[in-house]
Design brief:
By secondary structure, this protein is mostly helical. It has 14 helices and no strands.
Length: about 375
């Protein structure tokens, strides 16, 4: 450990990512073997699946174990005061996700446990959004409003990641982009502990994608998607708060909330879109369908990998735009980001309608 402390920080990040990557690579074959012997396949809700045969959905087990082990090996994590609470919350989500992947979990139980882990971070670790940073012209929040907002954000992002885990590679690629971006920004800010956690997740995602890219031999399941959504939410809140103007921290990234939205734009916009459409159709927002952005791209004839790469490219474009335009202010920049998303969705709708109607007409933009 003493030798590790003498290494340059970039080497730490590379080491933690590689350790996490290797742990996933060597553990998933055993998980696939056990799942095959015990018939633990992805055979739930088969009418909404694109795969013809059973595939294990326990990849999240490898992701969880690798992130926990590789993170705990790094002595720099002692700089994160809420680490023990974060890992305790991760263990709870792991148990809920594993139960759901093996035999299913009642939705009320799942949301209840999400509320518990979110409450742990907000009330015990004091990781919460303390301001709206000018969005809707609102700034500092009192403790009650701050806590409510933070609980909602964490729970929303947990479920948003769960929603995009619908095709091979998408959730893993999205998590890789999110945590690599956050890791680099934390490294720039000198937040070594948070950067280590982010890079541990990045390494685990790379290892998982080796087995999840089409043709997929394993899915991450709720064990993985719930964990990745939770860590994305917690790290994003930390990033925003560490760049708050007027705090005792040096501000490295202006308009940090806008950058965080850009980093998470894939799951955030997709979740807002599908929830809104389901409510407008007077249905339950939590009943699954095939109306996600990735399903619509598949309907145009793209395969799983191509659809995932298209959405990854869009995510990277939004991150780049947010970084370049971060001087415009949060309200303006977030509005621009969502307008771009609406435009992207409108163009996608036009091509879907044009394919279904076998002709390109301007009216396809309208209905």
């Amino acid at each position: 450990m003493l030798q590790l402390l003498k290494l340059p920080e970039p080497v730490f990040y590379l080491i933690i990512a590689v350790i996490s990557l290797v742990l996933v690579l060597i553990s998933i074959p055993s998980i696939i073997h056990v799942a095959g012997v015990r018939r633990l396949f992805d055979d739930l809700d088969i009418e909404r699946k694109d795969h013809k045969q059973g595939i294990p959905r326990l990849g999240g087990v490898a992701i969880f174990c690798s992130v926990m082990i590789s993170s705990l090996l790094m002595p720099q994590l002692s700089g994160f005061a809420g680490l023990h609470i974060l890992f305790a919350a991760c263990m709870i989500l792991f148990a809920v996700g594993l139960k759901d992947d093996l035999s299913g979990v009642n939705p009320s139980t799942k949301f209840g446990m999400q509320f518990i882990v979110a409450s742990m971070m907000v009330f015990l670790a004091d990781i919460r959004l303390t301001s709206l940073y000018g969005v809707f012209h609102v700034y500092d929040l009192n403790y009650v409003n701050s806590s409510i907002l933070s609980l909602l954000v964490i729970m929303f992002l947990i479920n948003a990641f769960n929603l995009i885990d619908g095709i091979d590679g998408l959730a893993g690629i999205t998590a890789l982009v999110v945590h690599t971006t956050l890791g680099v920004m934390f490294a720039v800010m000198g937040q070594t502990a948070l950067a280590c956690i982010a890079f541990a997740v990045s390494g685990a995602c790379i290892g998982f994608l080796w087995y999840n890219i089409t043709p997929s031999s394993i899915f991450m399941g709720d064990t993985g998607s719930l964990l990745l959504g939770f860590l994305s939410a917690v790290l994003s809140i930390c990033f925003v708060e560490l760049n708050k103007v007027g705090s005792h921290h040096m501000v490295y990234f202006a308009s940090a909330p806008s950058i965080a939205v850009a980093v998470l734009i894939g799951p955030v916009f997709d979740a807002i879109r599908v929830f809104s459409l389901r409510i407008l159709k007077k249905g339950s927002p939590f009943v699954g369908d095939r109306n996600h952005v990735h399903h619509r791209i598949l309907s145009l004839g793209f395969n799983h990998l191509q659809a995932s790469l298209i959405l990854m490219g869009f995510n990277l474009l939004m991150i780049t735009a947010a970084l370049l335009l971060r001087g415009t202010g949060n309200f303006t920049l977030i509005s621009i980001l969502f307008l771009v998303c609406v435009f992207f969705n409108t163009v996608l709708t036009f091509f879907v309608r044009s394919k279904n109607r076998k002709g390109f007409r301007l009216v396809n933009f309208l209905w």
